[in-house]
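PROTOCOL LOG
Step 1. Enter all chains and additional molecules of the complex.
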Amino acid sequence: MRLATLLASAALCVPAAADEMWISNEKDDTLSVIDIETLEVIRTIETGERPRGITFSKDFSVLYICASDSDSVQVMDPETGEILHDLPSGEDPEQFVLHPNDRHLYIANEDDAITTVVDTETRTVIAQIDVGIEPEGMAVSPDGKIAITTSETTNMAHWIDTETQELFANTLVDSRPRHAEFLKDGTELWVSSEIGGTITVFDVETQTEKAKIEFEVEGVHPDRVQPVGFELSNEDKTAFVALGPSNHVAAVNPDTYEVEDYILVGRRVWHMDFNADKTLLFTTNGVSGDVTVIDVAKREPIKTIKVGRFPWGAAFRPTN
Amino acid sequence: MIDAMIALRAILIREALRFVRQRSRFVAALVRPLVWLVVFAAGFRAALGLSITPPYQTYITYEIYIVPGLCGMIMLFNGMQSSLSLVYDREMGSMRLLLTSPLPRWWLLFCRLLASTTISILQVYTFLAVAAVYGIDMPWIGYAYVFPALIVAGLMLGALGLALSSAIRQLENFAGVMNFVIFPMFFLSSALYPLWKMAESSALLRDICALNPFTHAVELIRFALYGQFNAVALGWTILAGIVFLGFAFWGYDPARGMKRG
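Step 2. Run joint prediction.
Step 3. Record the structure below.
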């Protein structure tokens, strides 16, 4: 009885694991895992060459990694850090997006100017769609009917019907589009343009441009203000936009399309992700090799955490 | 004991009255760091916006970096101002009157030091309030933690002023103090640039900065403003304060008389 009590109390003493933020380090071929409570790196895991885009399956049981220079999408067990298998991804996969069906991965193949659709269960390529030159940004509408690929050199957003896996529209955006996201229940599509320095807002139903968001960071040359990744806070109240070598993240009001704040982060901020309740935002700062944690309510940076060289993607993983 | 307290009160009131009546001195003491904050820091924002050095946990703008240095600047200039008024008092004769008091001379000098430190601290808090209105605020706890740090830093810099005043013969010589003491102390410190930035241009400069007691006073203030304790900075500041105070007491030693005055 006494032993049972002791064992029970010992079990109670084991602290619950905190949620984690997973970061891909492009130059180190590793992932850094950040403990969201202590804001410290607790694990570094080796991957294939040049990991960039990362995303978890819906139940967080596997992590998909774009190992660009290994020409594969790796599937990792996040508990053990073991690579379970590779998926056929086409050449140089840079970024991808998981369809709401939790099964189809839409992958941008930068060198081949195609978007590859992979079935993660059968591990087969189910479609390859010709898009513009150097595809990168990927998005899927919340209802899963539309996939978007943006092409860096063609300067277009390519609209893919996910039933037929065919293009049904191509729309011009500003120079070098990098990232795309659907907003407001899928009624708007936002596309960031790195060189153009803008975000173009499209009406999804008509695929026409309805607004353009511009950025201006005080004391920073306009050439260095380069919007890349962006994420939406709770209820789409604020869009946080990484502005690359300007070393700032912009807070944009999605209703007025106006920039409300600029937050100082590390050098060449690229992508980002939130914690579970979206109170903290983690930005990957490529050149300075770190991750800045932003208090979303205060819009203030609270800590910068050193990770590997050239951190690129970020993905949240709950552990409880 | 009561006599000593009466002397302390009298000296404190005299310094306070002098400070309150010299409005221009108060305004100048506040305008100087504010000009640095608003004009100089804005110009350097792009050049020096990227460093994570303790106590900072993330990237900060140059305006945020420079605030503790400007607090130190207020105390440094105030210490020197106090030294200037000591020289003035000596020239006018009121110093001789004070030092002829039957109380120990070290006590009188310490009272003088305490008075100038009190005024320094008031100036620093006023500056921090204006900086907060300008948008540069510290964690609330920092405003409380910085108080003891300001006392230590203020006493050290005041003691330096006291030591200098014992060595300056005439008011005219004060320009030399500006050129040879205040400016080198201020510029060769971590007040304007972090030490790692100094090391990028010259390791020797960085070493000089690291030896400068003003650097440690600034770092003590900087850490305290963020609710942190810097034992090394405290140790150096106290040590420098004791040395300067020793010089001052020696300089004003009655056995040496007022030979130099």
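Step 4. Note key features.
Chain A touches chain B through 15 residues (CB under 8 Å).
The mean pLDDT of chain A is 91.
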